[in-house]
Design brief:
Radius of gyration of chain B: 24 Å
Organism (chain A): Halocynthiibacter halioticoli
Shape of chain B: elongated
Order of helices and strands of chain A: HHHEEHHHHHHHHHH
CATH superfamily of the largest domain in chain B: P-loop containing nucleotide triphosphate hydrolases
Largest interface: A-B, 17 and 23 residues
Order of helices and strands of chain B: EEEHEEEHHHEHEHEEHHEEEEEEEEEE
Keywords (chain A): Cell membrane, Membrane, Sugar transport, Transmembrane, Transmembrane helix, Transport
Largest sheet of chain A: 2 strands, antiparallel
Number of strands of chain B: 20
Distance between the termini of chain A: 31 Å
Membrane topology (chain A): Multi-pass membrane protein
Distance between the termini of chain B: 27 Å
Radius of gyration of chain A: 23 Å
CATH topology of the largest domain in chain B: Rossmann fold
CATH topology of the largest domain in chain A: MetI-like fold
Number of strands of chain A: 2
Main location (chain A): membrane
CATH superfamily of the largest domain in chain A: MetI-like
Helix content of chain A: over 70%
CATH architecture of the largest domain in chain A: Orthogonal Bundle
Strand content of chain B: 25-35%
CATH architecture of the largest domain in chain B: 3-Layer(aba) Sandwich
CATH class of the largest domain in chain B: Alpha Beta
Oligomer: heterodimer
Number of domains of chain B: 2
Number of helices of chain B: 8
Family (chain A): Belongs to the binding-protein-dependent transport system permease family. MalFG subfamily.
Strand order of the largest sheet of chain B: 6-7-8-3-9-10
Number of domains of chain A: 2
Helix content of chain B: 10-25%
Shape of chain A: globular
Structural class of chain A: mainly alpha
């Protein structure tokens, strides 16, 4: 009956979505294409859209550590540093976020809701406002220019939100399941690990993805805290590339693509968990 | 073995006491039903026995071992929850074998026991399914299976049938009772449904406001209710209650109509509450005058609502009714079926009615 207007609606929505996607993704795509072009092609007029002779030269250059204009940019090292920081702080955030989230969801202690709300307040500060105090603090602790320092810092920044996501998802898991596990002979820890956490997987994955992406792409704190070249991260490397190669844009394109790759992969594979985790509790399932 | 003894169980949430000293003896193998309206403390009592709630005072023992300080896993008690509480991420077999896995039994042993339990509950074909793929009745059976694989000393059921539709409820009721007759494991079953209590129990514990109102077999409670509350709670349709006055050995209504001789000695002029069940009255040539207000045939029997000057009286009869609404009739209480209760305390005035 009303099949036709409905189809029309879908087509309209699809078109709008397409336009928005192109608008948002075009610069990214442009950069991606640039990474396969040669220096002369980038400089020529009229501008070519598709690479005329696609080449991996820029990527090869990226992975052969060379002195570029007097500055050493060791991309394997940068990537390794970023991975170390993002993975370690994600693990820390997951472990403590889960324990804290469980406590907030299940245990009764005075001031529980107040503290849980307070956790979110820490998210309300503009990061830039914390730059200077954080720098002072980290210097006092002797943690400036150290990967461990950044791991601790990112974990501290990431924990409140992770705790909050995990706590709200654990609240949705019926208490009876745990009680049932305890009647079956489980300790509290066993019931948490064997019954509660498997059911909270979407929330755990969401928290992990959220944190990993944040840690992987963080720039401001990394740039003021890390000084020596061997400690720098991909975002710093990318920033210096933009400064270094104003003409050789293919290098910037290649670097940006590599930095974006893990994030794209994470969203590609984690998408269904990501939306489910963030929406947990929105409706009764 | 699994006899359960409760002594002076008290439970408070802050300043509010919800269990006011419960005493109860359950023999090994007995099917005991805790019944009462919501908020009477029956679930709290059950959860205290399970170890999911701590008690404020008193003693819970199983086979003469005091267990109230033990955590649930050390009590050797299994529980079936109202919403089944099946682990959604485990198959039926895994759900049923979970307790054995925690007890570190060998996989071989687990498989054997799960299979045996599945056999009893007719779950063999469903062992590889997940809970979400099961119907309500099947979930209920898995929840029971999870309890029986452990062969515990005591089974606890917390309103296990309240999520099922009426027909399935009747069927599961029989299944649980059959299961009990087969396994003979001490069972404590909580429900607010008096029919469930009547049909399943060896022993019913009627609770109200954190107190035990009466303990007895279903027929004892039905025939000799200790209070107006129990009399009204057990039996459907409920017992009729009217104000009455002692007159010699008999009871009269407040409008001086003769009700009959009660099951207790009443002083002349003593004000009491008279009670009689709908099936214990019959239409007669003379007696208490009433008008037929409503006729509800259910096939096997017919329910009549009779309106006297002051009250509406429910009567059920297996006779075919020739009266129609508005007719003037007379009814009498069948001899020996007239209960009477103290109008102040609402306790039964019959011999033994003061007990409990």
């Amino acid at each position: 009956m009303n099949e036709q207007p409905r189809t029309l609606n879908w087509i309209m929505l699809g078109l709008i979505g397409l336009v928005i996607s192109i608008y948002v993704l075009f610069p990214v795509f442009w950069l991606f294409l640039a990474s396969f072009k040669t220096q002369p092609e980038l400089a020529q007029l009229p501008i070519s859209f598709w690479p005329e002779a696609p080449t991996l030269e820029a990527y090869k250059a990226l992975f052969s550590p060379t002195h570029q204009k007097g500055q050493l940019l060791d991309w394997p090292q940068l990537i390794g540093n970023s991975f170390f920081i993002a993975v370690s702080s994600t693990i820390i955030v997951l472990i403590f976020g889960t324990l804290a989230g469980y406590a907030f969801a299940r245990l009764n202690f005075p001031g529980r809701d107040l503290i849980l709300g307070g956790l979110l307040i820490s998210r309300m500060f503009q990061g830039a406002a914390l730059l200077l105090p954080t720098y002072r603090l980290m210097s006092m602790l002797g943690l400036q220019d150290s990967l461990i320092g950044l791991v601790l810092l990112y974990s501290a920044f990431g924990l409140p939100f992770a705790t909050w996501i995990i706590a709200s998802s654990l609240r949705e898991i019926p208490r009876e399941l745990e009680e049932s596990a305890m009647m079956d002979g489980a300790s509290r820890l066993q019931s948490m690990v064997m019954v509660v956490l498997p059911l909270a997987t979407p929330a755990l994955i969401t928290a992990a993805m959220w944190h990993f992406v944040g840690a992987w792409s963080e720039f401001a704190f990394a740039s003021i805290l890390l000084e020596s070249n061997e400690h720098k991260t991909v975002t710093i490397g990318l920033a210096s590339f933009v400064e270094l190669f104003t003409l050789e844009f293919q290098y910037v394109g290649a670097a940006a693509t590599i930095v974006a790759l893990p994030i794209m992969l994470i969203f590609l594979f984690g998408q269904r968990y990501f939306t489910r985790g963030l929406l947990a509790g929105a409706v009764k399932g | 073995m699994g006899s359960v003894t409760l002594r002076n169980i008290r439970k408070s949430y802050g300043a509010v006491e919800v269990l006011h000293g419960i005493d109860l003896d359950i023999k090994d193998g007995e099917f005991t039903v805790l019944v009462g309206p919501s908020g009477c403390g029956k679930s709290t009592l059950l959860r205290s026995i399970a170890g999911l709630e701590t008690i404020s005072d008193g003693e819970i023992s199983v086979d003469d071992t005091v267990i109230n300080t033990l955590v649930p896993k050390e009590r050797d008690i299994a529980m079936v929850f109202q919403n089944y509480a099946l682990y959604p991420h485990m198959t039926v077999a895994k759900n049923m074998g979970f307790s054995l896995r925690l007890a570190k039994e060998s996989q071989e042993e687990i498989d054997k026991k799960v299979k045996a339990a599945a056999e009893i509950l007719d779950l063999n074909a469903l062992l590889d399914r997940y809970p979400r793929q099961l119907s309500g009745g099947q979930r209920q059976r898995v929840a029971m299976g999870r309890a029986i694989v452990r062969d515990p000393k005591v089974f606890l059921f917390d309103e296990p049938l309240s999520n099922l539709d009426a027909k399935l409820r009747v069927q599961m009721r029989s299944e649980i009772k059959e299961l009990h007759q087969r396994l003979k494991t001490t069972t404590i079953y909580v429900t607010h449904d008096q029919i469930e209590a009547m049909t399943m129990a060896d022993k019913i514990v009627v609770m109200r406001g954190g107190h035990v109102e009466q303990i007895g077999s279903p027929i004892e409670l039905y025939d000799n209710p200790a209070s107006v509350f129990v009399a009204g709670f057990i039996g459907s349709p409920a017992m009729n209650f009217i104000d009455a006055v002692g007159d010699g050995k008999a009871l009269k209504t407040t409008t001086q109509e003769l009700l009959g001789t009660p099951n207790a000695t009443v002083a002349s002029g003593q004000k009491v509450i008279a009670g009689f069940r709908p099936e214990d009255i019959r239409l007669a040539e003379k007696g208490i005058a009433a008008k037929v207000a409503l006729i509800e045939p259910t096939g096997a029997e017919t329910q009549l609502t009779l309106r006297t000057e002051n009250e509406a009286i429910i009567m059920t009869t297996r006779d075919r009714i020739t009266h129609s609404v508005g007719d003037q009739v007379f009814f009498e209480v069948i001899e020996g079926k007239l209960h009477c209760f103290d109008s102040e305390t609402e306790r039964s005035l019959a011999e033994g009615g003061q007990a409990q």
